[in-house]
Model the fold of this input.
Amino acid sequence: MFDYRIRSPKFLQVAFDLLLVALAGWCAFLLRFEFDVPGLYQPHLRIAIAVWVTVKLMVFQWYRLNQRSWRFFSVPDVLQLVSANATGALVSLPVILLLAPSGFPRSVPILDWMLCSLLMGARYLIPRLAIESRKANQEAGREVLIYGAGRAGVALMMELRSNPSLGYAVHGFIDDDPQLAGIYIHGLKVLGSGAKLGAVSIRAGVNEVLIAAPSATTEQMYQILQHCQRARVQFRTVATLGEIVEGKGIAAQIREVDMQDLLARDTVQLDHELLQGKIAGKVVMVTGAAGSIGSELCRQLARFRPSCILAFEIAETPLFHLEREMRAKFPDVKLAPVIGNVQDERRVRAVIGEWRPTIIYHAAAYKHVPIMESSIVEAVDNNVFGTYNVARAAWEFSVGEFVLISSDKAVRPTSVMGATKRLCELIIRGLPCNSTRFVSVRFGNVLGSNGSVIPVFKEQIARGGPVTVTHPDMKRYFMTIPEASQLVLQASAMGRGGEIFVLDMGNQVKIVDVARKLILLSGLAPDVDIKIEFTGVRPGEKLYEELNLDDEATVSTAHRKIRIFTGGGASTATIDRLEYLRALCDEHDAGGLVRLMRDLVPEYTPSEEALAVQARQVETVRRPLSPSVLPMVRAAAAGARTR
Done:
């Protein structure tokens, strides 16, 4: 415990501490006797110092004071130091009274405790103050204001002070709490609220603001950005609560404000033990692996150390980039890139049969609503039969779990894309859950995903506008890509088979509000610098999305952000009529597909575009179906009449 080499830094620290202990004891006697210790009390002085040095050495080691860094010395460290000195004084007192002559001055132990605490505190604080003072005199970098005088703001200020290489010098704080106005925090003043930011920044000569408000709500964050925009200052933000929890330095996370900050989404809490048990050491397959959701699923899965991630994807170049990224970020996790199309039943069966995955996450799908309205055959072929091919192969090869990535557009669909997703849900619920558990996970729009409004709006803003929005009342649910992917993993791990899991997406957000916030994020004024134009609702779109059907009841789960919808029962009739659906696809009969989907999904309301396709085919001269298809169609028609 006390085996220190004579020249080691630790030995020198201990030796210095012992000198401070002895100095504190001597000064205590001097103060007690007004700087003239009588000869009668000299034995008391020598014995007391010897005992204090011995006992406090052991106590300080027990409290591990020498393992504390003066660079980060703070209030908890001060409390520990005072507590260690109090313990040393209490333990020393009976020993001193036992060894020293009678008449030991009663006030000396108290004086010693106070002086020793002060000297030990100074031993840590003086080097820190000296270094910080020297750094402050060096090149400070550009001056900034910190918006937020809470814990995150103070932590950011302390880190920027201690690390001048980051290139920031904090001039003061801005905070909307009126009780903080005018107070000083570590020598820096809270200069006012956000409403006064313009005047404060001009007076201080500062044109950049670092926003440190990790717990701000959507509206609070929007208001902060409005203050920054009106003040004509540059702004950046630091660390959401989730990023702070991950343990990186707060200053290292200074970044541009993005739409995720304006959503104010809560950090997802995952059941790591459950997921680790489900995924670790297993072969996991992701279809559509190079897409927005598929690629993020691969990243999230890698955290739980599967033996292999089977990345099934038709797009060669995105798959190539995904493999390179995964190899760099997760070198210990094997990712097997596999080119394939979910519409190719033989390829799907060959891959699943060879690799025998334990879990399949089916993310491959056509998702662009307006495009699918004019590509009905392709939407059904890819979404419905692609899902059926993968699900059937999963059942044949006894894959443990099949997870369908569904959509809120499957609820009372008005689009071909939504109707195909609802058909996929019905197919999944109609398959037997014996060797394979089939579950669906339903969620809404994903921020930043391929084809979402965010990249489109950014391009329009970069061109100087206008930003085009379909309708002023258009609303959507929004999630971040990591949040959606993490909750998909969590929901799938909870599945027993046959469930439709629905993720909590908060409140629906107006698309026009998203546009205004993105313009604001660009440092511009909505409707002033960048105009917003309304272009009309596109084919297949609804003004707002829904999460459940009328006959679906909500059941809570152990996870607060995941619910299960029951009802809307599984129907094998959907699977029984897939051959008819396939025949219509083979004949490229888009009108027939719309009619049949309306029959299979009664709540489906086709768009005018889809109805026009149906009408055009009815009016044209029908060419006869091929002889191989006629028996299927006649049988399906007879079955429909019987029902």
User: Anything to note?
Assistant: The chain is about 50% helix and 15% strand. The chain has three domains: 9-134, 139-257, 272-445+481-505+549-572.
